[in-house]
């Protein structure tokens, strides 16, 4: 299981130090929530901030695009040095084209699904996707309560991936992840856990990351 602290809950006045703190604490990836104030009712940061952080850490960068027209950001994110990009199925039209556009840059491509969006949106794409990001809160803000019905969705997706001949498909879960639900998430078939407030909200980040491993 990989742990991906989400920078959204970090102290924005000390970003480089915050990133280095979770790297030393044993994080596997750095999750970067890019919001445009349109797809979700919040604004965060974009490629210039991500690029500025690139020399500060060796952690792979996992960019989660909560934006309309996600394809507008691929060039800049590639130049910023990200290793993974997910975009929302609800925000795009030509999903197959966008996945290939990301992968042609040597970047892993993921499809993100809101809690209420059916897995059918990902089904035909399972043979080509690197990962699926299951939102376990409504996107836009950190610190929200985990939506319990998404556990069933993760189990179903794991079965669908097996049936599609993709036992290697990574399932990333984002929102409300804490030590209270990591066992259930692991049992359901999650591989990558995004954790904002349950890591950056704690003073000892190493202990917080260890508490999410099971
Ligand atoms: C929410 C973001 C998440 C967020 C998770 O829209 O996509 O990545 O940072 O924060 P927590 O872990 O606090 O729910
Ligand atoms: Zn996210």
Provide an overview of this structure:
With 214 residues, the chain is of the alpha/beta class. The chain has one domain: Aldolase class I (TIM Barrel), CATH 3.20.20. 33% of the residues lie in helices and 19% in strands. The chain has 9 helices and 8 strands. Strand 2 (30-35), helix 2 and strand 3 form a beta-alpha-beta unit. The longest helix is centred in the last third of the chain and has 14 residues, at 150-163. It is globular, with a radius of gyration of 16 Å. The protein starts with a strand and ends with a helix. The structure holds D-xylitol-5-phosphate and zinc ion. Zinc ion is lined by residues 6, 31, 33, 64, 174, 194.
Question: Which SSEs are present, and which pair or pack?
Answer:
Layout lengths: L1 E4 L9 H10 L5 E6 L11 H7 L7 E6 L7 H7 L3 E5 L6 H9 L4 E6 L6 H4 L7 E5 L14 H14 L6 E5 L7 H7 L3 E4 L1 H4 L4 H8 L2
Parallel strand pairs: 1-8, 2-3, 3-4, 4-5, 5-6, 6-7, 7-8
Helix pairs in contact: 2-3, 6-7
The chain binds D-xylitol-5-phosphate and zinc ion (ZN).
């Amino acid at each position: 299981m990989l742990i991906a602290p989400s920078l959204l809950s970090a102290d924005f006045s000390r970003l480089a130090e915050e990133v280095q703190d979770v790297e030393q604490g044993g994080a596997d990836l750095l999750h970067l929530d890019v919001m445009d104030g349109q797809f979700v009712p919040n604004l965060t940061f974009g490629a210039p901030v991500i690029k500025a952080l690139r020399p500060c850490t060796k952690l792979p960068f996992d960019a989660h695009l909560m934006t309309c027209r996600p394809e507008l950001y691929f060039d800049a994110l590639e130049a910023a040095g990200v290793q993974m990009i997910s975009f929302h199925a609800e925000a795009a039209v030509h999903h197959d084209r966008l996945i290939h556009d990301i992968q042609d840059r040597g970047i892993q491509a993921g499809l993100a699904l809101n809690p209420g969006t059916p897995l059918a949106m990902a089904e035909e794409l399972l043979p080509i996707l690197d990962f699926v990001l299951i939102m376990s809160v409504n996107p836009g803000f950190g610190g929200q309560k985990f939506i319990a019905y998404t556990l069933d969705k993760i189990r179903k997706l794991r079965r669908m991936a097996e049936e599609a001949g993709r036992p290697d498909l990574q399932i990333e879960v984002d929102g409300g992840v804490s030590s209270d639900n990591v066992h259930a998430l692991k049992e359901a078939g999650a591989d990558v856990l995004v954790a904002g407030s349950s890591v950056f909200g704690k003073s000892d980040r190493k202990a917080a990351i260890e508490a999410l491993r099971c």
